[in-house]
Amino acid sequence: MKIKKILVLLLAIFISFSLAKESVKVDDNEPEPTRLESFTKLQKVISAVEMYYVDDVHLDKIVNKAIAGLMSELDAHSAFMDKKAYKNMKVSMKGEFGGLGIVIGVRDGVLTIISPIDDTPAQRAGVESGDIILKINDKSTLKMTIDEAVTIMRGKPGTPIDITVVRKGENKPIKIDIIRGIIKVKSVSAKTIGDDILYLRVASFDNNVAEHLTKFIKEYKKKTKGIVLDLRNNPGGSLNQSIKAVDIFVDNGVIVSQKGKTKADDSSYTATKSTTLTKVPMVVLVNGGSASASEIVSGALQDAKRAVVIGEDTFGKGSVQMLLPITDDGKEAIKITIAKYYLPSGRTIQAKGIVPDIYSYKGSAPSAKDDDFSIKEKDLKKHLEVELEKVDGKKEKKTKKPEEDKKVITKEDIYKDNQLKTGVDVLKALILTSK
User: Which pTM value belongs to this model?
Assistant: First the structure.
């Protein structure tokens, strides 16, 4: 009897000790599990899912889900690409495909439109930078990856799709109907403002940006006293082209560097004097749709004191991804972040973006209110004749040139764009002080 009591007491002490041990926090100095222990744990989970999960799931699908979950937990830009997704990605890299014309990313854990591309179905339908995608057709985007969303949105030209977005300043979600089209991007265009300002619009950094910028700068060089470089809603593209673009305006110093896990992933890019084409005063326009390569350009010009950056905070996409095929047939791959970009000052772009030197917001610029009767006496008769035609129902004949053919930005155009108006005003001041 006495021995029995001792055994019960010992058992109670053992249980109390075990419970106390479990309640104590794990020591930070506790050694990490070995690689074998970690792989064994993963193998046990996969085996348990295969054996006990309520539905039959093939081992290959279990592994794919495990890989997809791992990549999505790393960061917003790393992803697993199955056969379909990898094939679609290769098609898009050829430069022409059926889609909407938007670039998307993940901000605060939700799918967000970085920017609509110029002259595409999405832009014409009214999609705006910063829109949060709530639904694609009737499918919720919660927990949807970037690549899954792209796969759904891409499709045969001429077919319809709708996206439901949440937009800042709107009380309820907005449903936008879009017809897919062939996406061809005109990366660079040039116009003049007045007699001495060159306006350069870069919509994306494809493989021809530096060549086109060089062409336009040389074409207008004799009259150009200042340059407006418009990078708004530019989602990025080629790192090489962004470096070449900066090199056109800067003749020395670091443009951008990247740092990764190993020294093999580290690199630095510097400007060269031989490729510099102009030193006239500059302003750069940016907004929340400016990302990646456009952030490198605006940030490098800002750090070099070469340009005044005007607009809104940029998106903040400053990481480098690499594609790694993971099957013998090369039909599946992972996209993994291997490095981050750093500007000449040492600051990072990732999740922070570029802060403009001067904040300016979209919309029309304030101006004197002109009504229909603020005209000179000599024009009054002609004006009243036009008003009479309106009353009689006669249509005024207009021969307006297509917008895309315009090579000149008028005063009216500038007042419709507050950020451009701010940029032009600042640039004129820079031109005067440079003298």
Answer: 0.75
